[in-house]
UniProtKB/TrEMBL annotation:
InterPro entries the record matches: Alkaline_phosphatase_core_sf, BPG-indep_PGM_N, Metalloenzyme, PGAM_B_sf, Pgm_bpd_ind
CC terms in the record's Gene Ontology section: cytoplasm
Organism this protein belongs to: Physcomitrium patens (Spreading-leaved earth moss)
Signal peptide as annotated in the record: none
Residues given in the record as substrate binding sites: 155, 185-186, 221, 228, 302-305, 377
GO biological processes: carbohydrate metabolic process; glucose catabolic process; glycolytic process; response to carbon dioxide; stomatal movement
Protein name as annotated: phosphoglycerate mutase (2,3-diphosphoglycerate-independent)
EC number(s) per entry: 5.4.2.12
Reaction catalysis annotation: (2R)-2-phosphoglycerate = (2R)-3-phosphoglycerate
Active site: 96 (phosphoserine intermediate)
Length: 576
């Protein structure tokens, strides 16, 4: 990241001066103001060897294939994972939050995962006001920890949960109840028992420290609690009933028993879709309903899928579902999930402060923007794009359009999702002449890729390609410029691979093991359109460029030099 201050020396003394900040951007020497610019984010669309397990390769994608032929001048790859997007290491796959943050902000910020790691390693987490708030319940009441149980590193991490549990027990927690959400989306389907086993083993140590600890409830992340962008409050409600009231249709003595029985009853059940269950003691009573004066921490660091639950736990006024008798709890998030609305009021780790994003610059420079996606990705291209900021910068210069996602249909049953509807709306927005900047997220590659259903993901990719064609035709018509990229990989790889050979790993039945997660692959970045000045092409001196380099690039397309502290633009100008 570029330094935010000017450092200099005066008579041997080191001084730091804050750079004056200006919103007005300088004019670009080559790209003229006033061009219509279309930004297309293909969610979960990475680049990977074109074999039979790459659904993008198998799907008919004539539009995207034709664009690839413009490499290297107008088609290149950019990094979308690990350090390039502010994650702790290059072993970390990309995800929508860090990807859209980087795309919208044009800089790389240390993200929630790394901030929590640091706060735990330094012990700062235990010194903050958030921890003081929850720890006042430790001596007399129960501490509830609720969140995603895996080491996927997208929303949460198991090692952080274990450290937090231990840290709380060391600091006086007498009773801990963990409300687990099964993953199978950022990690292998069917891997939930592995994580439960690790957690149960940790409980032994915790109990030896004089703290009574066990799992209290559970369920799959897509069915219980972790809905987002208000797609389905029913998902949060069934989580609430299990976690707070100790009520669920399924009751078991242990989480392992829950998994075994529910899987036997429905062998096709994936971890992500497990129904809610409650753990009960020998007397049949729930092990850990949430009661008056208890402390509750949601240990996910990522915001989007915890905002709705945080509202239910934190807000006094709440009308999204009937919470029943609301216990008087002390609730904190691992992070604050929405700083603008101070949700939640208490949190253990301060989130990254992502300011001066491209959206705000465009508004200050009178560029009119229009952004759209369907519900399941709507916040990605608005809230996350704007640095996790609710609302718009200017209601007169911006318009955000949400297309309702299908409800109650598995994504693999309708792999087209709303791709064509989004594309048509974007086309109309561009042709209306009212907007200079039209930005969309097309969700299919990611949402269908996560189901692990190969055939459906192929259809998803085909739909994405058709949607791209509709939008590019509109760019052609208005003589505009387009930039297509993705936030991370997913659909391009549907199998687990041997890290050395790249060959698919086979399961005991001799079939390739399904990969439902994102990947560490780079993603394409493609520019073009009749409005792109002749001689503008990708520069070749940034081989390791990543998503954070994209904002400077499209700011250029709008006719401006990028802000001085943004990652460098991907383009250069060469006369033929
Ligand atoms: O569905 C999600 O929450 C994540 C995967 O955990 O996907 P994405 O980052 O693409 O939103
Ligand atoms: Mn994504
Ligand atoms: Mn995803």
């Amino acid at each position: 990241m570029s330094p935010s201050n000017l450092n200099f020396e005066l008579k041997g003394t080191k001084l730091t001066m804050e750079r004056p900040h200006r919103w007005r951007l300088r004019h670009h020497p080559v790209c003229r103001r006033g061009k219509k610019v279309m930004i297309i984010i293909l969610d979960g669309w990475g680049e990977q060897i074109p074999d039979d397990f790459n659904s993008i390769n198998v799907a008919p994608t004539p539009t995207m294939d034709a664009l690839k032929k413009t490499a290297p001048d107008r088609w290149r790859l950019v990094r979308a994972h690990g350090l390039s997007v502010g994650l702790p290491s290059d072993e970390d796959m990309g995800n929508s939050e860090v990807g859209h943050n980087a795309l919208g902000a044009g800089r790389i910020f240390t993200q929630g995962a790394g901030l929590v790691d640091q706060a735990l390693a330094t012990g700062k987490l235990y010194e903050g006001a958030g921890f003081k708030y929850i720890s006042s319940a430790f001596a007399q009441n129960t501490l509830h920890l609720m969140g995603l149980l895996s080491d996927g590193g997208v929303h949460s991490r198991l090692d952080q949960l274990l450290l937090l549990m231990k840290g709380c027990a060391e600091r006086g927690a007498k009773r801990i109840r963990v409300h687990i959400l099964l993953d199978g989306r950022d990690v292998a389907p069917g891997s939930a028992p592995k994580y439960i086993d690790i957690l149960e083993k940790e409980f032994v140590d915790i109990r030896n420290m004089g703290c009574d600890a066990c799992i209290a409830s559970g369920g799959g992340r897509m069915a219980v609690t972790m809905d987002r962008y208000e797609n389905d409050w029913g998902v949060v409600k069934i989580g609430w009933d299990a976690q707070v009231r100790g009520e669920a249709p399924h009751k078991f003595a242990t989480a392992m028993e829950a998994l075994k029985n529910l899987k036997e009853a429905n062998p096709k059940l994936d971890d992500q879709y497990f129904p809610p269950f409650v753990i009960v003691g020998p007397d049949g009573n729930a092990e850990g309903p949430i009661l008056d004066n208890d402390a509750v921490v949601s240990f996910n660091f990522r915001a989007d899928r915890m905002v709705m639950a945080a509202k239910a736990f934190d807000l006094e006024e709440f009308d999204k579902f009937d919470r029943g008798v609301m216990p008087k709890i002390k609730y904190a998030g691992m992070l604050q999930y929405d700083a603008d609305i101070e949700l939640p009021k208490h949190y253990l780790v301060t989130p990254p402060l992502i300011e001066k994003t491209s959206g705000e610059y465009l508004v200050h420079n009178y560029v009119k923007s229009w952004a759209c996606s369907e519900t399941v990705k709507f916040g990605h291209v608005t809230f996350v794009w704007n640095g996790n900021r609710s609302g718009m910068f200017s209601s007169s210069l911006e318009k955000y359009v949400e297309i309702p996602s299908n409800k109650g249909i598995p994504f693999n049953d309708n792999p087209e999702m709303k791709a064509i509807a989004i594309a048509e709306k974007a086309r109309d927005a561009l042709l209306s002449g009212k907007f200079d900047h039209v930005r969309v997220n097309i969700a299919n590659g990611d949402m269908v890729g996560h189901t692990g259903d190969f055939k459906a993901t192929i259809s998803a990719c085909e739909a994405v390609d058709r949607a791209v064609k509709i939008m590019l035709d509109a760019v052609e018509e208005v003589k505009g410029i387009f930039l297509i990229t993705a936030d991370h990989g997913n659909a391009e790889d549907m199998v687990k691979r041997n890290a050395k050979t790249g060959e698919p790993i086979l399961n005991s039945a001799g079939e390739p093991e399904v990969l439902t997660s994102h990947t560490c692959n780079p993603v394409p970045c493609i520019i073009g359109g009749p409005g792109l000045p002749k001689g503008v092409k990708f520069r070749t001196d940034l081989p390791n460029a990543g998503l954070a380099n994209v904002a400077a690039t499209f700011i250029n397309f709008h006719g401006f030099e990028a802000p001085w502290d943004y990652e460098p633009t991907l383009i250069e100008y060469k006369e033929d």
